[in-house]
Amino acid sequence: MAAASLIPLSVCAQYYSDYDWHDGPTIEPNGPPEIIFPVQGGTNLSDDFGDPRSGGRTHEGNDLMAPKMTPILAARGGRVTFAPMSEPSYGFTLSIAGDNGYEYDYLHINNDTPGSDDGNGGPQYAYAPGITEGVLVTQGQHIAWVGDSGNAEDVGSHLHFEIRLPDGTAINPYPYLDTALSMGTYDVASARTANPTIDLDKSLTAASPTDLHCTPGSLIRIPVITSVYYCGSDGRRYVFPNARVYATWYADFSEVLTISPEEMAAIRIGGNVTYRPGVRLVKVQTDDKVYAVDRGGTLRWVSSPALAARYYGANWAQNVEDIPDVFFINYQIGDPISS
Predict the structure, then answer these.
(1) SS3 for 152?
(2) pTM of the predicted model, to two decimals?
(3) Which of 123, 205, 207, 299 has its CA 20 to 30 A from that of 13?
(4) Which element (helix H / strand E) includes 161?
């Protein structure tokens, strides 16, 4: 999923209130509405867009069932255009003019005091702190809580999620939610077991025997110099940038072979070894976000402390290691983890 970039908002989108249609700024749609899943932790998903509703209406979104007070995340970054502080008849609602030109609507937001069904929770239990009309939000940011406000009281708590074009036309969010749900998950054990070797992690292609100057899969070094290299199946050597990266792949240095400088010079340099997937959480020294590592040095932002605790335990913060900025070039940013 492409990283979001904020663009000056110009054209006009619309959102509905009790009284009339209101103008909210957006830009022209640019590409498909690439999103992350807006309910933290994910949920069962079905395509109920277009289903009949009372009064001859049709359902213009997807209902994402979840317990009350489950965090709602910004499916896409953008500007909040509608966040009523007094609950409308249809319940607390958020509209966000996305940075890719689409409008994202979040309905049936919580209106209860936590632990009750009193309908008196007010905006402080509807929206996340700091969420008001006009503020910018980033993709994956906590913006609200799931509830049953409006006509959802007898249905059960859920998020009604819509995607609209600038003219107000609703489009089916299901295919984008389905993609986001599959991409937004992460399994620590699977990430680790699916990448047991550096060859697999880097998707190296085996070289012909005539191009091999070291034994594929071996660990090598030269006298005096402490740097350790991995001999890839492609016949190149890959250096471990530090002992922390090495420790995610090997328990000790007992298998490291010492070869001559001349032998080492005959082996072409392939690049740096990156953290093994599923072993450590990492952060870049000049970036506050915490990332899980996936195949090929792909960094996936863990979008909340709760998700970090789910995947790496209550002491997850002790499992975070810094990647120096100089080594960031070895990594790439992937899809956020939102469930």
Answers:
(1) helix
(2) 0.57
(3) 123
(4) strand 158-164
Angle at 318 between CA 317 and CA 323, to 5 degrees: 85
User: Would you say 184 and 335 are in contact if contact means Cβ atoms under 8 Å apart?
Assistant: yes
* Rounded-to-integer distance, Cα 331 and Cα 58, Å: 45
Q: What is the pLDDT of residues 247-289, one digit of tens each?
A: 999 999 999 999 999 999 999 999 999 999 999 999 998 888 9
3-state helix, strand, coil in the chain (%, to 5): 20, 25, 55
Characterize 288-326 residue by residue with b for buried, 16 or more Cβ atoms within 10 angstroms of its Cβ, and e for exposed: eebbbbbbbbbbbbbbbeebbebbbeeebeeeebebeee
Phi, psi of 148 (to 5 degrees): -140, 35
pLDDT digits (tens, 9 = 90+) for 118-139: 999 999 999 999 999 999 998 8
Return phi, psi of residue 189, to 5°.
-65, -40
As a whole number of Å, the end-to-end CA separation of the chain is 16
DSSP state of 157: S
State how far the Cα of 5 lies from the Cα of 312, in Å rounded to an integer: 30
178: three-class secondary structure by DSSP: helix
The radius of gyration of the chain's CA atoms, rounded to the nearest angstrom, is 25
In the DSSP assignment, the letter for residue 147 is B
Distances 191 to 104, 109, 275, 279, 327 between C-alpha atoms, Å: 32, 34, 12, 9, 22
- pLDDT (tens digit, 9 = 90+) per residue, 54-100? 777 888 899 999 999 988 989 999 999 999 999 999 999 999 999 98
- The proportion of the chain whose per-residue pLDDT surpasses 90, expressed as a percent, equals 55
pLDDT interval class at 26 (50, 70, 90): very low
Q: Record the tokens describing residue 59, joined without a space.
A: 């359902």
